[in-house]
Structures are given as structure tokens and as C-alpha cells.
Design brief:
Length: 877
């Protein structure tokens, strides 16, 4: 499951962007298990420390056991599930037949119980003759069948169940990661929306597939499966495994038979149907399929970017070849999450769709594709045995994103992705800390957060860095092969790493998997000229409460640079005290002593470097994270040397550093820098860098750059850059910019629509209001927030009366209250209502009250807990 881009990682970053400041990352490096005199040379622990005193308040002795989320007990074991399903579009129900073959897990039994949520049960029989009725009880969404005799673990039996699934009835829940637990979704069932295709699809994680077929809806069950799906002839279908047969029926329908003959968890079963085009290719003899809406057919391989290459890389890196029969990808409408790793059949939200121009530099697609494909090893081949152990699914999938970017685009790209992910965790950690392996969660959906994803992925990067690639991936291979087509947990991962490396890893897993929080470090540097020694003094300042260790065991590297800036001397150390000093020989004062040279450590860090050291770091470090750390420290400096170093960073090898350097340039103190960067508006290979240049040129309000803006508008392909050029042109040629905006008014691209909106909001005309209104559901993401703000600004400048304004706000309210709209769009709508509401606070009339009521209704309908928390804060402003 992917939570970035309308799913869990996406929500974490989204909430962090709205509620939290940026937090830093540290580093770690492979080191020996204890400090080595020969390697560290003159390491001396100068500072002894006082014991950490923790005041513990007396608590009453409990009379009940604490929460413990045990792995579900297996009384019976499903071997195979066969389904025959038909769809009732009018009622939005499924009429199903299920043949379930099972056996007692260990102890003899005469009954079996299935999860079957909100079903009408028609008939239950023993399937070997189809006529022997079986007694059953159906209560609290559990179907218990009396098998008529006692079976042992050596016996198999098959029960047959006829049922109707009613996913739209009963209590509907959801979470930040998966906004609905209906399990089965009918899209545009009555065909009332001419702009939306008719589709049906499923979403099983966590335990929602039991809303459309009876099963043991737990992650520690494994079974083979097959589905006979009857649909309209015009529909294409998709399910797990291989399509074995397509049979045309006399009533104008078609029945497709899909077979998954390798065991997988019930929540990974899926099906989808609709009017799709299918683009195919092959990898190592296996079929890869790309399902897209027909208008995106020619862009299919760009939407699902680099799939064969990703398969090859992961197979080789893991030492385990992709283990399934085929791999299909499908984008559906109104999806309730980001993406889902259903075995052999990944489902994605429509944020993936795009034309060739819209997909330029769209890293999100490649990130999600890599994430979901890695799940086919971690989550599908080896499945977390319980939701408490979700880390062995989601942390690995998160880890794979930076792993792929590092392989494909270089170490800087991998590090940049890690930083983005870690910032998401640090944002969440300000209000939430829990063990990575968590047996006391309140709701299993709570496990889909920035701990299971972001933090867990970062921990795996640390372990890889400590062990080295060869040992780490040998350990991973052992974990996968030992537990293939079974379940796994973190202890099995630890034991695999220990067997491969010969090292005890309890110290690592205890502090990172079974404790909370992260180190909070303060790092100081001293040079002892008399003794020619460098001292690095490190303090761990995290509060030792709520399961956070007072002392983390931190193996890492310190890099010592001389003035020449050549390859640094690396010293490996291990921090095992609350405060510790590390001492190294240095014949002359180093130009830089760099703590956490690899920037792998998951930590908050105050690094007490001076400006000269940061200038040196920006110019000489090979690691993206170090260069960005230096750049951010120097950007507010008025030191000419600091500004000169930032100017040089405009030519950095990695685009994010170039972009940040351009944004940090001080054009008021040095207008000449514009001459240096202006050519990059047309020539830089990265679209966001080109946009940054245009924004910097526009800030000068100098008409001399109008030619650059017009050149970009004439040649540019990337929509965000076109939008930036239009906004820049508006500052020096409003008429020309307005004409260009009119040209693009009917474009669907969200970034471009937002740019047009920002231009129209400055000098709005009544006809521009119509543009805003028809574009409210085109925009998304951060651009959506800006667009809704521009809409309010335009309404204010045009002078809409209160009655008409309230009518227009009702449309905003509908968007904010509609759970099928994206989280970004719902947030944008709620924020717009709240911003307008504050304008009317204390004024006469009913506007404040009416807008407050709208906002309250949005909160009441919101299923995303983090958005609800943000919205509730709005109501008290």
C-alpha cells in the first residue's frame, strides 16, 4: 500500500506540510561492533557522564491486562477459494457463489467460521455433492458453519455458499491511508456522470475483502484463488494470476476465468472491470500489462514508468527472481488510497494518469510503481503475520523507493528521496511516537502511518549502510527464501541477518523496532592545536520517556577534510554514552570535520559548524544531504563568501541543489546573478529548476527578461514551467500574459490552471469567475490550495454580493464534504471556507454562522483522521 500521493506516505507529507516544520536527518556508517583503537587511532573518552535521572510517578496497579494485538489464531486453514460473481449495478451489490476448500489447522473441529460482512446468505451446503445442506449461524458479520462431523488436520473439505454482498450498506469506516472500507466499489453505477466511466473494483487491505466474499480476513492466512467474473462484453477485467478463459454468454455478457495458483493472503485478492485499453510487453517470458482508460493508451508505458527495468533490478538485487505469474497495473477512478499491491495486479488512483507533457519530471509515478512492485516480495511473497508487524511489508516498500532512485539516477537522487521521506516521519514524530513493531495499537488502521513507512524505511537504510550491501542483501535473500509464500515478522528478519553476518543484532532491533523515537543530537567540534588533536563532542538530548531510549547505540562515520578538499579521511566510531567525546590525530586544523559522513542516521541534529565550514561543505561534499544542509545554513547569510558559494552551487551536479541555490540567491544585493541564471530558464534539464529561474527573474520585475519569458512560452513542454513563465510575464506585460492565459484556459493540467488562476485573480473580470468555477475539480495538490485562494481573491475584487457569494460557497462545500474528492482538494475547499469565514467574524448578518455550519458539516463527513484534526483547528480560529 502506498500512502504517498493520496495514500499513507502522501498523507504524512501532506499533514507535515500543513502542521509541522522541517526536521533534519543524520547519518550512520558501517563500523565494527565496538570502537577499534587501530581504526580510530587516538579516541579518548574525555567526558564521564552522570546517570540519567528519570522521575517516575507512581501509578495505580492495573487489574486488567494491557492491550496485546496477538497474531490471529488459526482454527481452520483455507486451501483454495473459488468464486463466481455477478454485479447488480442498480443496487450496487454482488451476487456470489463461493467454493471454499479448507482443513483444520491442527486440532480436530466440526465447524468453520468465516468473516462475511453484511451479507445475505442464500444457501450453504457441503460442496462435494452440492445438495447436503449445512446448518449455520450468521451473527456480527461472522458466518459459522456446522460441518456435520469432526475433521482432523489430515482431512480436506469444501463448503459451498450462495450469498449477496451489500458493500454500500452497514457501517463504513476508513483511515488516513484507506479512506473507505467498503471493499467493493461501483463507480458511476447509474451512468449519471457523463465525464466518468463505469467501473467496478475492489480494495482488500486491511480486512475489507470479506465485504464481498467469505474468507478468513487476516494477513496470516494463505490460499490459492480463482474468480469467474461475469461482466458486460465491452468491459475488460483484471484479477490475480492468469486469465484462463473468456466465455461469451447468451444474454450478451461475458464470463472471464482468472486463476491464481500460488498461495497469497486474502486481502491481496482483487478484481476490477471497466472500459480499459491494455498495453502489453514481456519480461523474462512473463507478461506485463498496463490497463489505462483509452485516451491514455499511447502514454501507458510512461504512466507506469520503467517497469521491466525495475523488475530486473529488484530481482537481481534481492537474489530472488520476481516470483509471480505475471504483473498487471491498472488505474481506476475514485480510488480510496494511493495504490495497492494486490498480487500480480496493482491498482492505482487516477493521480497516475497523464499525457506525455504532464508526465515530464513526474517522479511520483515512478516512486509509486517501484513501491508497489517491491511489495511483491515484501508483503505478497512474505506477508506480515499480523498488522502489528506491518513494518516487514511497508518499511521495505518505502526503502525500495530510494534504492531504485539511487540505482537509476545516482546517489544524490536516492538521498534526496530519503530526505523527503524522513521529513515526513519527523513531522509526525512531533505529535506521535510509537514502537515500529506495535502490539498495542487502538485500531489496525493506525499502523499505516509515517512510522511503518517512513521511519521503517530509514531504519533499513541504516542497517544496509552498517552491514554493507553484500551482507545486507544476502540477509534479505535468506529472509525471503526461508519464508516464501508464508508470513514473516521482524524477528525472522533479525535472525536472517544474524545468520548471514555472524553478528548479534538484538541491539539494533531493540532500539529501532521495539523502542520509540530517535536520537536528538548536539555536535560540537574543537581543535587542540597544542596536542594536534580534533575533538568531536556529541550529546544525546532526547527525553527518555514513552519508550524512547536515554541512549541509542550509534555506529557511524566521521569524515575529516584537509584544506585541499580531497577525499576525506574516514574515522569509524560508535556512540554508546549519553555524552561522548571522540578524539583524532590531526597535524593541522581540518577544513571540516563532518559528523555522519554518509548522512544515514535517523536523528535530529544540531551541528555546530561555522560559516567557513559550511562554505567548504557546500563546495566539497559528495553527499547531497550534506550540501543541502550547508546551503540551508548559508542562505540567510550576508557574508559575501557565503553568497559566492551559493552562486557556485547553481552549477551543482544535482538538480535539487541547483534549485535550492537559485531560490537562495539574493538579487537585491547582487543583481548580476540574474545574468548567470537566466540561460537556465531554457537550458536546465530539470523542469522545476527552469521554473525556479523564472520565479527569480520575475522577482526582479525587470522588463529586460520579457524575451526570456516569451521564448519559454514558445518552446517549453512542461506545464509547470509554462505557468511560471506566464506569471513572470504578467509582472512586466500584463496584457500579453492575459492573452496567453486565455489560450490555455481549457487545459486540464492542474499546475497550469493554478497559474492562470493566480493571473486572473490580480485583475479579474466577471467572465473569469466562470473559469474558476469550472476548474475547481481540475486542480489538486498544493496547486489546488493556491487556486482556491485565487478564486476567493477574484470574487472579492469583482465584488460579488453576499447572497451570490453564499451560492458559490455551496459548491466549495460540496467538494469539501465529498469523500471521493482527493484529500488535497478537500483541504483546499475547507481552507477556502475558513479563510472567507474569518473575514465575516464579528460582522452583522448570517455569513459567519452559515460558513461555520458548512465547515462543521465537512468535518463531520471527513474520514481522514489527520484532516479532521486540521479542520477542527479551523473551527476554533
Amino acid at each position: 500500500m502506498k500512502k504517498q500521493i493520496a495514500a499513507l506516505l502522501f498523507i504524512a507529507l501532506f499533514v507535515a506540510a500543513c502542521t509541522a516544520g522541517k526536521s533534519g536527518m543524520g547519518s550512520s556508517a558501517k563500523t565494527p561492533t565496538s570502537p577499534s583503537v587501530s581504526e580510530v587511532k587516538a579516541e579518548v573518552e574525555k567526558d564521564s557522564i552522570e546517570p540519567v535521572k528519570v522521575e517516575v510517578a507512581e501509578a495505580p496497579i492495573p487489574d486488567t491486562l494491557p492491550i496485546y494485538r496477538a497474531t490471529p489464531t488459526m482454527e481452520n486453514d483455507i486451501i483454495h477459494t473459488k468464486l463466481d460473481v455477478k454485479f447488480d449495478w442498480k443496487r450496487q451489490q454482488l451476487n456470489g457463489k463461493a467454493w471454499i476448500t479448507a482443513k483444520p489447522y491442527f486440532y480436530p473441529t466440526s465447524s468453520i467460521t468465516f468473516d462475511a460482512k453484511n451479507f445475505d446468505i442464500g444457501k450453504v451446503t457441503m460442496a462435494y455433492n452440492g445438495v447436503q445442506p449445512l446448518k449455520y449461524t450468521y451473527k456480527n458479520d461472522r458466518l459459522t458453519i456446522d460441518l456435520g462431523k469432526i475433521y482432523t488436520r489430515n482431512d480436506k473439505y469444501t463448503v459451498y455458499i450462495e450469498y449477496t454482498a451489500k458493500p454500500n450498506e452497514g457501517g463504513e469506516g476508513g483511515s488516513a491511508a484507506i479512506t473507505s472500507d467498503k471493499g467493493l466499489f461501483f463507480i458511476n453505477a447509474d451512468e449519471s456522470d457523463p465525464n466518468k466511466p463505469r467501473q467496478v473494483w475492489t480494495q482488500g487491505e486491511t480486512e475489507s475483502n470479506s465485504r464481498w466474499f467469505p474468507t478468513f480476513d487476516k494477513p496470516n492466512e494463505r490460499m490459492t484463488s480463482e474468480i469467474f467474473m461475469t461482466v458486460e462484453k465491452k468491459f475488460k477485467t483484471l484479477s490475480n494470476g492468469l486469465l484462463k478463459e473468456m466465455k461469451t454468454n447468451s444474454d450478451g455478457t461475458r464470463t472471464d476465468h482468472w486463476l491464481m495458483d500460488l498461495p497469497h493472503a486474502p486481502y491481496l485478492v482483487m478484481m476490477a472491470a471497466g472500459e480499459f485499453s491494455i498495453v502489453s510487453e514481456r519480461w523474462r517470458g512473463k507478461e506485463i500489462q498496463y490497463y489505462v482508460e483509452p485516451k491514455y493508451e499511447k502514454y501507458a508505458k510512461a504512466i507506469y514508468k520503467n517497469v521491466p527495468e525495475i523488475l530486473e533490478f529488484f530481482s537481481n538485487k534481492l537474489g530472488v527472481v520476481y516470483p509471480w505469474q505475471k504483473l498487471a497495473h491498472i488505474v481506476v477512478r475514485d480510488y480510496v488510497s494511493g495504490a495497492m499491491e494486490n498480487t500480480t495486479a496493482i491498482i492505482y488512483g487516477e493521480f497516475m494518469n497523464g499525457t506525455e507533457r504532464e508526465l515530464i519530471d513526474k517522479d511520483a509515478n515512478e516512486t509509486v510503481v517501484a513501491h508497489e512492485m517491491f511489495h511483491h516480495w515484501f508483503g505478497d511473497l512474505v506477508t506480515a503475520e499480523s498488522w502489528s508487524n506491518l513494518t516487514v511489508n511497508e518499511s521495505f516498500a518505502d526503502f525500495s523507493e530510494a534504492l531504485w532512485f539511487e540505482h537509476k539516477y545516482g546517489m544524490d537522487a536516492g538521498d534526496a528521496h530519503r530526505r523527503e521521506v524522513m521529513d515526513g516521519y519527523m513531522g509526525e514524530s512531533e505529535s506521535k511516537k510509537r514502537n515500529l513493531v506495535d502490539f498495542k495499537y487502538n485500531n489496525r488502521e493506525d499502523m499505516f502511518d509515517a512510522h511503518s513507512y517512513n521511519k521503517g524505511g530509514g531504519i533499513l537504510h541504516m542497517l544496509r549502510n552498517y552491514m554493507g550491501d553484500e551482507a545486507f542483501f544476502e540477509g534479505v535473500k535468506k529472509y525471503l527464501t526461508d519464508n516464501a509464500y508464508k508470513t514473516g515478522e521482524s524477528h525472522q528478519l533479525r535472525l536472517a541477518m544474524e545468520e548471514v553476518s555472524g553478528e548479534d543484532f538484538n541491539w539494533f532491533f531493540n532500539q529501532w523496532y521495539y523502542s520509540s523515537g530517535h536520537p536528538v543530537l548536539d555536535v560540537k567540534y574543537e581543535y587542540d592545536e597544542a596536542n594536534r588533536k580534533v575533538n568531536v563532542i556529541v550529546s544525546q538530548n532526547q527525553e527518555p520517556k514513552d519508550g524512547v531510549p536515554a541512549i541509542f547505540d550509534l555506529p557511524l562515520a566521521i569524515d575529516i577534510y584537509d584544506a585541499a578538499g580531497k577525499k576525506p579521511r574516514r574515522e569509524k566510531i560508535r556512540m554508546t554514552k549519553r555524552t561522548q567525546t571522540f578524539t583524532f590525530n590531526a597535524s593541522t586544523k581540518p577544513a571540516l570535520v563532518d559528523f555522519d559522513g554518509d548522512r544515514m542516521l535517523l536523528a535530529q541534529k544540531i551541528d555546530n559548524h561555522n560559516e567557513e565550514e559550511y562554505i567548504f561543505m557546500l563546495a566539497n561534499s559528495s553527499r547531497y544531504l550534506a550540501r543541502m544542509e550547508a546551503l540551508e545554513s548559508l542562505r540567510e547569510s550576508d557574508n559575501p563568501k557565503a553568497q559566492e558559494s551559493i552562486k557556485k552551487a547553481v552549477s551543482d551536479k544535482f538538480w535539487e541543489v541547483r534549485q535550492a541555490a537559485i531560490q537562495a540567491l539574493k538579487i537585491k544585493t547582487d543583481p548580476s546573478v540574474l545574468e548567470k541564471i537566466a540561460p537556465l530558464a531554457e537550458s536546465d534539464p530539470r523542469s522545476s529548476v527552469r521554473s525556479a529561474v523564472l520565479a527569480k527573474l520575475a522577482a526582479s520585475k525587470d522588463a529586460k527578461w520579457a524575451t526570456v519569458y516569451r521564448n519559454v512560452l514558445a518552446k517549453e513542454k512542461a506545464y509547470p514551467v509554462i505557468g511560471s513563465a506566464m506569471q513572470a510575464l504578467y509582472k512586466v506585460d500584463a496584457t500579453g500574459a492575459m492573452e496567453m492565459a486565455k489560450k490555455y484556459e481549457n487545459d486540464e493540467n492542474a499546475d497550469l490552471v493554478n497559474s492562470i488562476g493566480s493571473i486572473y485573480a490580480e485583475s479579474p473580470k466577471p467572465e473569469h469567475i466562470e473559469f474558476f468555477e469550472r476548474s475547481l475539480t481540475k486542480v489538486d495538490g498544493m496547486s489546488g490550495i493556491g487556486f482556491y485562494g485565487s478564486y476567493l481573491k477574484a470574487l472579492d475584487k469583482v465584488g460579488v454580493n453576499d447572497l451570490d457569494l453564499m451560492t458559490k460557497m455551496k459548491k466549495i462545500h460540496e467538494i469539501g464534504a465529498n469523500q471521493s474528492q482527493s484529500p488535497w482538494r478537500r483541504f483546499a475547499a475547507a481552507k477556502a471556507l475558513n479563510d472567507l469565514r474569518k473575514r465575516y467574524k464579528g460582522k452583522s448578518g448570517s455569513m459567519f454562522t452559515d460558513l461555520s455550519k458548512m465547515l462543521t458539516e465537512i468535518i463531520e463527513k471527513e474520514s481522514n483522521d489527520q484532516l479532521k484534526a486540521i479542520f477542527s483547528q479551523m473551527t476554533v480560529q
